[in-house]
Design goal:
The chain is an alpha/beta fold. The chain contains eleven helices and 13 strands. Helix 1 packs parallel to helix 2 (39-48) and helix 9 (270-281) packs across helix 11 (319-332).
């Protein structure tokens, strides 16, 4: 299939471009480069041995988005584009609602106008809100605790309603847990702008010397070592999950909108991750215990049976793989991508 990948130079998008190529699909990228760098493209071409078509603009520009669909044929879309920092979303709610929901409106209007009826959407486990029981199943009600999360809840509802109103329009809602790791080559990986919001890039930046110490938020949770547990999934497993969802929609035209969790089904604590990273890298990760953050849950992990049963997909890479691949990327690119 010829697949438009929005946000295709970002962390998960770039790895998915490689997985699409490996599976015989033809990805075309559109990205505004707000949270990524154009130098990602040359590395994707280097790794794949393939020239990749890239369009640089903001999907909220409805004229440019419509023109892209008028000029090029697509069989499907994988939609990653959007702002994604939880804390920033609380400080800039209008920017998050306008960007994330506005880009989806523009994209889906263009898809409908040009009869592109297959969409894989980048959602998040944040749609399960606060206090959801574990393992988190796809049947749980959705809610959120911050504007970023609400943009995911709202986009899921919008896309579900479009599928219900438009027979033949298909949507895979992929709810990821905590993506980490990097391509095994070390040539692409996570390159957050500014101070990392997530655990793994913070750990790796401390290990490589970019930051002095890690803050561990809370050591009094009801877990094995008192630190919070999360379901970490290797980004390449996650990318392969997008390809599996895309293929599943193509094989099952009767599907309208359906959600799948993408996780491992296992929790790993903050201190377990620090220990695994030190062993994988040989570097020290000094840390301090800090107070809990408001709204943080003790334990979060996915129920993965639906994806295993219906998509034929499961995460196979270990915590050790995640740490080793992250270190390979970070140690070779201590300042991230050039440019």
């Amino acid at each position: 299939m010829r697949v438009l990948v929005t946000g295709g130079t970002g962390y998960i998008g770039s790895h998915t471009v490689l997985s699409l190529l490996a599976a015989g699909h033809e990805p075309v990228v559109v990205d505004s480069f707000v949270n990524s760098k154009p130098t990602v493209v040359s590395r994707l071409e280097e790794l794949s041995g393939t020239a990749i078509t890239v369009h640089g603009f903001d999907l909220r520009d409805e004229d440019k988005t419509a023109q892209l669909f008028a000029d090029e044929h697509f069989d499907a879309v994988i939609h990653f584009a959007g702002l994604k920092a939880v804390g920033e979303s609380a400080e800039q709610p209008l920017e998050y609602y306008g960007n994330n929901i506005g880009s989806t409106f523009s994209l889906v209007r263009a898809m409908e106008r040009h009869d592109v009826r297959r969409l894989v959407f980048s959602s998040s486990a944040t749609v399960y809100g606060e206090g959801a029981p574990v393992p988190m199943t796809e049947e749980l009600p959705t809610s959120a605790t911050n504007p970023y999360g609400w943009t995911k809840v709202m986009q899921e509802q919008i896309l579900t309603d479009v599928a219900a109103a438009s027979p033949g329009f298909q949507v895979a809602l992929l709810r990821y847990f905590n993506p980490v790791g990097a391509h095994v080559s070390g040539r692409i990986g996570e390159d957050p702008q500014g101070i990392p919001n997530n655990l793994m890039p913070f750990i790796s930046q401390v290990a490589v010397g970019r930051r002095e110490r890690l803050a561990v938020f809370g050591d009094d949770y009801p877990t094995a070592d008192g630190t919070a547990e999360r379901d970490y999934i290797h980004v390449v497993d996650l990318a392969e999950g997008h390809v599996a969802a895309l293929d599943h929609l193509a094989e099952h035209p009767e599907i309208g909108a359906r959600a799948w969790n993408l996780g491992t089904g296992q929790g790993t604590s903050v201190l377990q991750m620090v220990d695994a990273f030190e062993r994988a890298s040989g570097a020290q990760v000094p840390y301090d215990i800090a107070p809990r953050r408001a709204g943080d849950l003790a334990v979060v992990y996915a129920a993965t049976e639906r994806a295993e049963r219906e998509l034929g997909w499961r995460a196979t890479r270990t915590i050790e793989d995640m740490c080793a691949d992250t270190w390979r990327w970070q140690s070779a690119n201590p300042e991230g991508f050039p440019g």
